[in-house]
Amino acid sequence: MTQPRWTGVSTCRELDLHAMFGPAFADLAPDIALLTPDAVTDPGAVDFVLSWAPPADAFAPYPNLRGIFSIAAGMDAILACPSRPEGVPVFRVEDPDQAAQMAGFAAFQIVWHHRKMRQHITDQAREVWNRPDGGRSPARVRVGVMGFGFMGRAVARGAVALGYPVATLSRSVQDHPEAGMTHYTDTDRGAFLARTDILINVLPMTPATNGLFDATLFSALPQGAAFVHLGRGAQLDEDALLAALESGHLSGASLDVFAPEPLLPGHAFWSHPGILVTPHTASEAEPPAVVQNVVAHLDALNAAARANSGRRNMP
Amino acid sequence: MTQPRWTGVSTCRELDLHAMFGPAFADLAPDIALLTPDAVTDPGAVDFVLSWAPPADAFAPYPNLRGIFSIAAGMDAILACPSRPEGVPVFRVEDPDQAAQMAGFAAFQIVWHHRKMRQHITDQAREVWNRPDGGRSPARVRVGVMGFGFMGRAVARGAVALGYPVATLSRSVQDHPEAGMTHYTDTDRGAFLARTDILINVLPMTPATNGLFDATLFSALPQGAAFVHLGRGAQLDEDALLAALESGHLSGASLDVFAPEPLLPGHAFWSHPGILVTPHTASEAEPPAVVQNVVAHLDALNAAARANSGRRNMP
Q: CB distance B104–A278 less than 8 Å?
C-alpha cells in the first residue's frame, strides 16, 4: 500500500462526516487518507481536520496540523472551538454550486413575499379565485442583501436577474459595483435598511452579528417589509421578530436557520401564519465539491511551503 | 380644444379597459383620445382598437383602422374575433417589465418543484423537522421552456441565472444560441421532452397548441417530471394531466391558466395535492407599458406611411 500524500481526520458532534465524505475522498482523491479520530495511530502524521460543529477537544491530539476545513460555508463553530490551534488556517468551502442553490432558494423567498404566494395557497384550499390588482412588477420591490461574500454575491445576482433592484451591505467598500446593485457599507446601514422591502440575511455568525436582527434593526425597515433569514439562528432576536410581525410592521418572514436546531417542538415559529419555516435546507456543499476544495487548498499550502523554503535558501 | 393626433376605442367583454387604461393615456399620451364604443361619434375617425377578449362585432363599426392592440401578451381572442378586419396589423404588448414578472413567477415554480417546497409547508404545519438528504443542486434539474418569444426568453434566462440547465423549444432555429441554453426546434420535440425535468409552457394559443399538453406529450417526459402551465388553459388536456399525476409519472404541476377562467367551483384541480393553482396572475402589462407600446407602434405606422408616400413620389 502506498503512503498517503495527506492524512486527515473528520470530526463532528452531530454528523458522521466520515460516512458522508469518505466515499468522495476515496473516489476523487485516493492519495488522501481520511480517518475517524479512533482510527488515528500516529497523531503527529495528521495534516488536516475536516469538521463542522467540532467537539471541544477535537484539535488537541494533532500537533502538526496544516489546515482546518469546514464542510460548510459557515465556520463559526470551528472558530469558537477551544482546542483550535491559533496558527493553523481555517478554510470554508467555496462551492459555486452551493452558491447557486442559495441563489435559487433566496429567489423563491423573494417571490414568496413579493407575490404573496401563501395567499394563493390559502385561496386554492378555499377554492377562491382572487386575482391581485397590480403589484406584480419586480421593479418596485427593493431587495437588500446583508453579507456580500461568496453567498451574498450569488443571491444578489439572482435577484438582479429577475428584475429586482438590489442593494448590498458589507463591511468593505465594493470597488467594482455590479450591474443592477447599489453597494452600502456598515456605516450606511440605516440608509440601506430604509430602502429595503425584502431583507435577506446571509451574514456569517460572528460576535458582531450575534443578535443583530433585533427590534432596532427591524424598525429601520419600511412598513410592510419582509425578512428572509439564511444566516445563523443566533443572529435573530426571536421576540423582536414576533413583535414586528404582530404589530404589522413586518409583513412576513422566511426562516431557514434557528438556535437551536432542530427548531424546538411547540415553538411559536412553527404555527405563525406569517412565517415560512424550512429545516436549514437552503444550501449544502455536496461531497465532491468539498473534496475538490480540500485538495485545492492542500496543494496551495504545499506550493506556499515550497516557495518559502526556496526563499530561505536564497542568499 | 386641440384635435387628437390619434383616436382609439377600448372594447372588451370582461374588463373595463377604459377605466384601466384611460388615466395612463391621459397622463402619458394626451394627444391620443381613448374612447368607449358608446362615446364614438365619427366611426371613420377611429384609428385603433385596444382590446382583450373583444365582443364578436367589436371591429365592425370602424372602416379606417390602422392598428389593433392587445393589452396582453396573448392575443388569441383578438385573432379569433369574427369582425377583425384582415388587413389591419395586430400588436401584442411587449413589455420588459411584464417579462421580468413572468421570469420571477416561473423561477418560483421551478424551485417549488425542485426543492419540494410544499413538503416543507406541510412539515411546518405538523412541526416536523425533515431535512432533505441532498438533491439541492440545480445543475441536475433540467428545465425546458416551450415557447421562445418575448416571454420564453425571459423565463429561460431567469432559470439559467439560477444555475439550471435550460433547453428551449420553438418553431424556428435559434441562430444565436444563448449561454446556458440548448435550443430545440419542433422536429426534435421528443428529444427536448425526454431531457426535461421541469417543463414550462409559455406558448401562445393557436390551433397548433390547442390541446397540445396531452397524454402523449406527458408520457414523453421523464418519470417524476413537473409541469408549469403559464400559456393558455385550452392548451391542456385536463384528464391527461390528472392521469399522469395519478400514476406518479408526473410529480406535480403548477397551473396559472384555465379554460374557462375563473376555474370552476368544485374542479378537481382546486383540491389536488400535487397541483398549485394560481389565478392567471403570473404576469400583466401595467398601463404605462401598454400606452408606451401603443404610442411606439402608432409612431412606426406613421413613419412607414410617410416612407411609402415618399416612394410613390419618387421618379
A: no
The C-alpha atoms of residue A270 and residue A253 are separated, in whole angstroms, by 12
> For chain A, what percent of residues have pLDDT higher than 70?
97
Instruction: Give the full edge-to-edge strand order of the sheet including A48-51.
Output: A32-35, A6-11, A48-51, A67-70, A90-91
Q: Is the dihedral of CA B110, B116, B118, B120 positive or negative?
A: negative
Q: What letter does residue A118 receive in the DSSP assignment? A: H
- In this complex, which of B131, B261, B270 lies closest to A124 when CB atoms are compared? B270
Contacts 24+ apart (CB under 8 A), B295-302: B295/B28, B295/B29, B295/B32, B297/B67, B297/B69, B297/B91, B298/B6, B298/B32, B298/B47, B298/B48, B298/B66, B298/B67, B301/B66, B301/B67, B301/B89
Provide, as residue numbers in chain B, all residues whose Cβ is less than 8 Å from the Cβ of A266: 127
- Mean pLDDT for B56-71 is 97
Are residues A138 and B101, on separate chains, in Cβ contact within 8 Å?
yes
DSSP A200: E
How close does chain B come to A238, measured CA to CA in Å?
17
Torsion A301-A283-A175-A190 (CA) sign? negative
In this structure, are residues B109 and B276 in contact, taking their beta carbons and an 8 Å threshold?
Answer: yes
- Determine the distance from the C-alpha atom of residue B191 to the mean position of all C-alpha atoms in its chain, rounded to a whole number: 24
Considering only CB atoms, A158 lies closest to which of B98, B162, B278, namely: B162
The string of pLDDT tens digits covering residues A204-215 is 999 999 999 999
Task: Provide the pLDDT for residue B74.
Answer: 86
Question: Which stretches within chain B are classed as H helix?
Answer: 17-28, 76-79, 96-114, 117-125, 150-161, 189-194, 215-219, 238-246, 268-271, 287-313
One of 3.40.50.720, 3.20.20.80, 3.40.50.1820, 3.40.50.300 is the CATH number of B6-95+286-312, namely: 3.40.50.720
Q: Which of B93, B98, B114, B124 to mutate to test the interface with A (most CBs of A within 10 A)?
A: B124
Give the residue from A243, A170, A174 showing the smallest Cα distance to A200: A170
Q: Answer yes or no: do B115 and A104 touch at CB < 8 A.
A: yes
The reply to whether B232 belongs to the active site is: yes
**Radius of gyration (C-alpha) of chain B in whole angstroms:** 22
Residues of A forming the active site:
232, 280
Q: What was the pLDDT predicted at A310? A: 67
Burial of B236 (0-12, 13-18, 19+ CB in 10 A): buried
The pLDDT of residue A66 is above 70: yes
- Judge: B112–A115 Cβ closer than 8 Å, yes or no: no
The span from the CA of A270 to the CA of B24, in Å, is 44
| A158 SS3 class | helix
CATH homologous superfamily of B97-277 equals: NAD(P)-binding Rossmann-like Domain (3.40.50.720)
Domain boundaries, chain A: 6-95+286-312, 97-277
**Do the strands B32-35 and B48-51 form a parallel or antiparallel pair, or are they unpaired?**
unpaired
Contact A294, A48 (CB under 8 A): yes
CB contacts of B124 in chain A (<8 Å) are 270, 276-278
For residue A301, give the nearest of A311, A309, A290 by alpha carbon: A309
Given the residues B18, B84, B229, B232, the one annotated as active site:
B232
**pLDDT tens-digit readout, B226-252:** 999 999 999 999 999 999 999 999 999
A6-95+286-312 matches A97-277 in fold: yes
CA atoms within 13 A on the CB side of A208: 6
pLDDT of B312 reads 54
pTM recorded for the entire structure? 0.92
What's the CA gap between A85 and A92, in Å, rounded? 16
